[in-house]
Amino acid sequence: MYKYLILIISLISLQNCGQNKETMDVKATETLGNLYKDVKHQDKRINYQAMIFIGGCNYEVFINDYPVDRYFGPGDGSASGSSPINIAILKPGIQTWKIKIYPVRERAEVNGEIKLVPQENIQPGARVEMDIEGVRFNPNGGIEKRFGKIVEFEAPLKKDNSGQNAFSDAGKPYIEYSGTFQADVPYTMSGWENSTDLTAMDPTVLKQQLLKEYQKFHGWLQNGNLDQIASHKLNAEKEVAQAYFYDKKTNEAFLTKLQQIWGQKNLQMQPLENYKVAIYGNGKLATLIDEVDNGSPLWGNYEVGDNQFKHNSYFLYFHIPKGKKELEVIR
């Protein structure tokens, strides 16, 4: 009799959890489902994107000191792709870009484990190219208009002893390249421009405050509490919606992605560990990054088949708005 009672109570609890989960998803939709209604200047929209080609090195790309692309791993081969960067552009005018280049990592045995270990120096075979251009997308996602390239950068090469082209800064443990460009976005966003200078804070206090915020998100992700996540990300997502000129269709696609990533069922969050504080946005943004691969320490696994798993990583950037004392999510 007692066993049957426990079973009934368990079933009721599971049913209630399911109902709560459904309610939370509805609340999240209500919170973030109408972002497009506040988006302005659709007729003047322009999306800037960085087209990056990298080979034989690890790298980070920054726009206005905000990271828009990164890779830390083995250096066999090359990679190219396009990263949207409006998320880092708060207002029209002169913007900055920066590429940080590091040596590649090689697999090596460390204390009985296979790990990725950085090489000491950048190799001669490294290649770095980046273009930035503005485009206007049509409602179907295709390009309606190109505004031309405003950055065309290629890291310098030089002839080696054999007459082959080699990376000019090969042999160095680190190098960065930077420049500026004009962005004619039709919006102005608050972002973190007038936020507190986090470099002036006690580093220990800042780390403790960041960990506290990460622990909140860790719990919400583990418990499928999407309504809390949506509520805390509202101000950030309002700016993202404006930066990328959401319409109703785009907003709906965003909600689907939000559910798939931030509302993933059966997500098994991993412990928050091996992290350090990273400060961006010219001192006004802070986040936690993994000490080894510069990824996010906030991540979890979920099953996609018989003993087949995938994982989601969650990047969060915090600031302290002007006139306030607590960290808030802004990206």
Mean pLDDT: 90
The termini sit apart by 53 Å
The helix/strand class is alpha+beta
Along the chain, the helix and strand elements come as HEEEEEEEEEEEEHHHHEEEEEEE
| pLDDT < 50 runs, ≥5 residues | 1-21
Number of helices: 5
Number of strands: 19
Query: What number of structural domains do the residues give?
Result: 2
Please state the overall shape, judged from the principal axes of the Cα atoms. Answer: globular
Q: Major beta sheet, specifics?
A: 4 strands, antiparallel
**Rg calculated over all Cα atoms:** 22 Å
Beta-strand percentage range: 35-45%
Helix proportion range: 10-25%
| Order of neighbouring strands in the sheet with most strands | 4-1-8-9
Summarize the structure.
With 331 residues, the protein is of the alpha+beta class. The chain is built from five helices and 19 strands.
Can you give a write-up of this model?
The N terminus is likely disordered. The protein has 331 residues and is of the alpha+beta class. It is globular, with a radius of gyration of 22 Å. It is built from 5 helices and 19 strands. The chain has 2 domains: 170 residues, no CATH class; 142 residues, no CATH class. It has a 4-stranded antiparallel β-sheet, with no helix packed on it. It has a 4-stranded antiparallel β-sheet with strand order 3-2-5-12, with no helix packed on it. It has a 3-stranded antiparallel β-sheet with strand order 13-16-17, covered by helices on one side.
